[in-house]
Design a protein that fits this description.
The complex is a heterodimer of chains A (266) and B (343). With 266 residues, chain A is of the alpha/beta class. Chain A is built from 7 helices and 7 strands. In chain A, helix 3 links the parallel strand 2 and strand 3.
Chain lengths: 266, 343
């Protein structure tokens, strides 16, 4: 038993390290021969190296979450709608981790209309629902408009990877889920507890205002609460319209595959 | 004769105050005299303050070496308990005294127990085997009776908010508030000794006032006593300071039901109704740890210990790490149960 413990701990530590370091060194797993192509850069936005690195990262995440993470860029010469582009891509090329037309989360970048569309199919639809696809497009559109495609795509991969591990329906931006917040809160709690212990080690004051008060002879002699005026301020309630040029939602492809989705201009 | 001693009428030994029975008792033959029924020789004598420069022990005749504030001590040559009566008469006569109910051994035991409970104190300190001295001191206190007339003006608001149509309304009602309060404080203790740390003495409170006895010198036999260094008028500002936070919270308790209150004018008129000079029992413990002196005080009635113990950096680090780790784990668990990832 005592022999096994350190082994288990070491194994856990290695798994932890690998998962933490993996996004930083995506090349390390790029050599695996069975890597399939998940980056369809038909608008030629990425360098050869960026493309390879993103593909390696996408493959690794896909395997861990059992869901293909696909990036599809196009010049859209036929001037189709971004949603339709996504649906045709899915129907024609049949992506999916588990089977053709299987679990997928994909990003479609329409360079003609300058629109980005994120969609989830099957497990992807369940975990990366309309709300979460909207969150992803919200977080990457500014990088896209500045032309930082590589950074935006990496964010897409990381966010999809994160959301695919969060129970469907919960708010992924809840601060409780953030590791930095958990760490900061723990350190703060530790600091406060130790601070209070140190402060109290010298003895506490255990008398309060009632200890020396002669309550029989202490009272309010006179009191007045005079109403003067009422002021009213009103603010217009903002309609939930922060997806400027966004929206869309999911749908069903011509091939009968239901999906979630959100579109946004960049 | 300014030096008082208590000789046992049976055997002639020096008698001392016994905190267990509350009587003047003879350690040799066990005779016990009820102090409240003893005639106090002090009442018959009149001295002028500072008249006497030298004191001689009645038992051995040696000079009694004291500090100018000391009013009771033991002879450093023969160990006899002596009371310097001229420092306890006239203006210096205490009205009342709370005698010790904890004796020296009990004080030591209580202190050792307290040391063991220190969560942040170093291990070497917790064994409490370096007690240098345990001294029973009657510390001079003034018990103030204060009369406060308070008048307060304030602005208060009550805020209500609601939604109607496309608008969110915030309705604020403004009020003029006035309170006139009479507030009495009785037996507010302020320590009148220059030597004693004020903060330490404040933390020793509360003293059980039901144990207050009319002052008689035999209560001091065997202990050290001091006379006050500051008069009741000199300490009046400290008494006002001490009640200030009590008064503020009393005022706040009379102004309720408002969303916010801002005071425009607080007028507090404090008058000193009465101040009693009393002696309160304190055990002072001197402790030597790591070549440093630590001083602790213990309430001679309740056994409450105060004073800054040494803090072990290792234990602080240990507690910090432990608490932070447990918090992190529980936060992770909470986020995991809400559906988040564990790592």
């Amino acid at each position: 038993m005592s022999q096994k413990r350190p082994v288990v701990a070491m194994a856990a530590l290695i798994v932890l390290l690998v998962t933490m370091l993996a996004p930083i060194f995506p090349i390390s797993s790029a050599s695996a021969a069975e890597n399939k192509n998940l980056i369809y850069d038909e608008a030629n936005l990425l360098s050869e190296q960026d493309r390879n690195e993103l593909n390696a990262l996408a493959n690794q995440y896909s395997a861990e979450r059992q869901t293909d993470l696909i990036i599809y860029t196009t010049n859209n010469e036929e001037q189709k709608e971004d949603k339709l582009l996504t649906q045709e891509f899915y129907d024609n090329r049949a992506p999916g981790y588990d089977k053709p037309h299987g679990n997928t989360v994909m990003l479609t970048l329409d360079m003609y209309n300058r629109k980005v569309y994120v969609a989830g199919f099957y497990k992807g639809e369940e975990y990366v629902d309309n709300d979460r696809t909207a969150r992803i497009t919200d977080k990457i559109y500014s990088d896209l408009s500045e032309g930082n495609y590589r950074i935006a795509f990496e964010k897409f991969l990381n966010l999809s990877y994160e959301y695919l591990d969060l129970k469907p329906g919960v708010n992924p931006d809840n601060i409780l889920f953030k590791t930095w917040f958990q760490l900061a809160a723990s350190v703060a709690i530790g600091g406060i507890v130790v601070g209070v212990m140190t402060y109290r080690s010298g003895g506490r004051v255990t008398v309060n205002r009632a200890t020396y008060e002669d309550s029989a002879n202490s009272h309010v002699i006179d009191r007045q609460d005079r109403y003067i005026r009422t002021t009213v301020t009103k603010t217009k309630i903002e309609k939930n319209n922060n997806n400027s040029g966004g929206g869309g939602g999911g749908g069903t492809t011509a091939g009968g595959h239901s999906h979630s989705g959100s579109s946004r201009s960049f | 004769m300014p030096v008082l001693e208590y000789k046992c009428p049976n055997c002639g030994s020096g008698m001392i105050f016994d905190s267990v029975s509350g009587a003047l008792s003879c350690p040799s033959c066990g005779r016990q005299d009820n102090i409240e029924q003893l005639p106090d020789p002090l009442k018959k004598q009149v001295f002028t303050e500072g008249e006497v420069k030298e004191y001689h022990c009645n038992s051995c005749g040696a000079d009694i070496v004291t500090e100018p504030e000391t009013s009771a001590t033991t002879c450093s040559f023969c160990g006899a308990a002596v009371v310097l009566s001229d420092r306890l008469t006239g203006n210096l006569a205490p009205a009342m005294v709370i005698p010790f109910s904890i004796n020296k051994d009990q004080a030591k035991q209580a202190f050792k127990k307290w040391c063991r409970n220190g969560l942040l104190t170093p291990g070497g300190f917790m064994t409490a085997d370096r007690i240098q001295s345990v001294t029973g001191i009657y510390v001079p206190f003034w018990l103030y009776d204060l009369h406060n007339r308070i008048e307060v003006h304030a602005q208060g608001t009550k805020v209500r908010s609601y939604t109607q149509g496309d608008y969110h309304y915030t309705e604020t009602q403004h009020f003029d508030i006035y309170r006139k309060i009479r507030l009495e404080y009785v037996n507010l203790p302020i320590d009148a000794s220059e030597k004693m740390n004020d903060e330490l003495m404040d933390k020793l409170e509360p003293f059980p006032y039901n144990e207050l006895k009319l002052f008689k010198t035999p209560y001091l036999a065997g202990y050290i006593a001091e006379k006050y260094s500051y008069s009741e008028d000199e300490l009046f500002p400290r008494a006002k300071d001490k009640t200030r936070s009590y008064i503020d919270s009393y005022i706040a308790s009379t102004v309720s039901g408002y969303t916010s209150v801002s005071y425009t004018n607080k007028h507090i008129d404090t008058t000193l109704k009465n101040a009693d000079y009393v002696l309160l029992p304190v055990w002072m413990v001197n402790y030597d740890y790591n070549h440093k002196q630590y001083t602790f005080a213990m309430n001679g009635q309740t056994g409450k210990v105060v004073g800054k113990p040494p803090i072990s950096k290792a234990k602080v680090a240990g507690w910090f790490t432990g608490v932070a780790a447990v918090s992190l784990l529980s936060l992770k668990l909470v986020s995991w149960m809400m559906g988040g990832g564990f790592l």
